[in-house]
Design brief:
Elements (H helix, E strand, L loop, with lengths): L1 H4 L10 H26 L3 H21 L3 H12 L10 H18 L3 H20 L8 E9 L9 H7 E12 L4 E10 L5 H11 L5 E5 L11
Antiparallel strand pairs: 1-3, 1-4, 2-3
Helix pairs in contact: 2-3, 2-5, 2-6, 3-5, 5-6
């Protein structure tokens, strides 16, 4: 029974109906993967568009090289010429891209049920992880605080960090304005996002009302420092 469910819809030759079905499934699953990735990571439209079309493109490539060793070698050579110059992504980005390629590969082989199963399992786990109380992606912040050069920053904000954040880490210290100021870079996870302004106001009282910036962690930086 299971062998029949997960069998390829292609016969000895690929019919037009089977091609249309596999193409539609690859596009549909790509759109689902892109939606889930946007929902759980806040990724932009560029990443979403790439994830939507990647399974379909891989599906077409697999159809072209299926059973043709010469075409497979040629495609492999063409892909080896590609150089990706974008910023390195996070572990989640890499995983979701690999999922999109897996779905495209399965659709290209005609195993659309297997492709749907793989997408459903990974997307469901991602949504469950995002909905769990321990998930803090929407509470993670990059905090930059400017202080005068004569101020010791070692324990200056420790009590505030304990009060407003569940976790915090000083990741970088650098001098600015010809060494007259220090800029402290923190990675923090807020206990309550509704108290973000109150947190910043209290930090301003400590740093002499100098510049403070607080924003969400940019995509691709998650996981580089453990929080």
């Amino acid at each position: 029974m299971l062998n029949g469910i997960f069998a390829s819809i292609y016969g000895e030759t690929v019919s037009v109906a089977a091609l249309l079905i596999s193409s539609a499934v690859s596009l549909l699953l790509g759109a689902v993967i892109a939606f889930v990735h946007r929902r759980t990571t806040g990724a932009g439209d560029s990443m979403g568009g790439a994830l939507t079309f990647l399974p379909f493109l891989v599906h077409i490539v697999i159809l072209l090289v299926n059973g043709n060793i010469g075409a497979g070698v040629a495609v492999a050579g063409a892909f080896s010429l590609v150089r990706f110059r974008s910023a390195p992504g996070s572990a989640k980005d890499i995983t979701i891209i690999f999922l999109a390629m897996t779905v495209g590969l399965a659709c290209g082989m005609g195993c659309i049920t297997l492709a749907a199963l793989a997408a459903a399992v990974i997307c469901a786990v991602s949504l469950l992880e995002y909905a769990s109380p321990s998930h803090g992606g929407d509470r993670s912040r990059e905090l930059r605080i400017t202080i005068p050069e004569n101020m010791d920053y070692t324990d200056l904000f420790t009590d505030l960090m304990k009060r407003y954040t569940s976790q915090s880490m000083l990741t970088q210290v650098k001098t600015v304005s010809m060494g007259s100021l220090y800029c402290l870079h923190y990675r923090v996870r807020l206990k309550d996002t509704a108290k973000e302004k109150q947190f910043i106001d209290e930090l301003r009282c400590r740093n002499g009302n100098l510049e403070i910036s607080c924003g969400r962690t940019p995509s691709g930086k998650e996981g580089k420092e453990s929080l």
